[in-house]
């Protein structure tokens, strides 16, 4: 397990039948995941549960969604930052994105669907809900492995999972005109704990390794890229660094990708286990949604450190 890698990033099969707590595959996966996160803040996951057919349907439906009139897409507003619709902006003219809050909850997806399609779209609602449930399951399995990798007990992990909110986003990038820059999205880290990115065979996503090297993420649709984000860095007291990533459009095809973001419905705080004399606490606890509101306007290079860093 974990012996396969794509350019230094290991692949973990999160749906392997033998992956049960206490077993040898589980224990070796704990080690692989922990090292991958401490080294470069990311790993790939595989899931046989998300079939090629489901994956193709999701990307097809997202294409249908993005083709709706701008006025229709704009109807999806949210009081939570990064949760609504973002039309192309002069700073990121190629990028457009749509968020669906609480996507593993059927009623929430139904509500969203009814805003986009006045006459309904059961296929959209059912497919996106099923897809989101499978991604949430992957996220939860990964967190159970991660907690165990640091010797944190099951109860602690289950209460952490209970206070997790999810948001599904879809990103679409136009092909740049000859005169336009091919920068799809600036280098950044995400605000979540993990972001799970799923691409559809079109390159563009790049990740920065710990040694400063930028590498292309593998866009195969059978891979799910788990990125450690700001909240996981706070939780681990910097043991795990958030993965810096960006998007550069190089193919003559419209790029679409999907992302599942996990956020805390309570406070984001550092796990006691990671604090001792040698590792004094580096962050103050904070409300996750306050941080999202801060980040949306922040120009800081490391917003998380400015927002809640101690002695930063
Ligand atoms: O397009 C992608 O694959 C990644 C998008 C992204 O990093 C973001 O919106 O935070
Ligand atoms: Fe991102």
Overview features:
binds 2-oxoglutaric acid, Jelly Rolls, 4-stranded antiparallel β-sheet, single chain, globular, binds fe (ii) ion, 312 residues, alpha+beta, 15 strands, 34% helix
Order of helices and strands: EEHEHHEEHHHEEEEEEHEEEEHH
**Number of E strands:** 15
The residue ranges in which pLDDT falls below 50 over 5 or more consecutive positions are none
Give me the CATH superfamily: B-lactam Antibiotic, Isopenicillin N Synthase, Chain
The DSSP helix count reads: 9
- Overall morphology: globular
Ligand catalogue: 2-oxoglutaric acid, fe (ii) ion
Look at the structure and give the mean pLDDT: 94
Q: Structural class, judged by helices and strands?
A: alpha+beta
CATH class: Mainly Beta
Query: Main sheet, how many strands, which sense, barrel?
Result: 9 strands, mixed
CATH architecture label: Sandwich
Query: Radius of gyration over alpha carbons?
Result: 19 Å
CATH level 3 topology: Jelly Rolls
Order of strands side by side in the largest beta sheet? 1-2-3-11-8-13-6-5-4
Helix content: 25-40%
Range of strand content: 15-25%
N-to-C span = 39 Å
How many discrete structural domains? 1
InterPro entries: DIOX_N, IPNS-like_FE2OG_OXY, IPNS-like_sf, Iron_ascorbate_oxido_reductase, Oxoglu/Fe-dep_dioxygenase_dom
Family: Belongs to the iron/ascorbate-dependent oxidoreductase family.
Domain Fe2OG dioxygenase: 163-265
Pfam families: 2OG-FeII_Oxy, DIOX_N
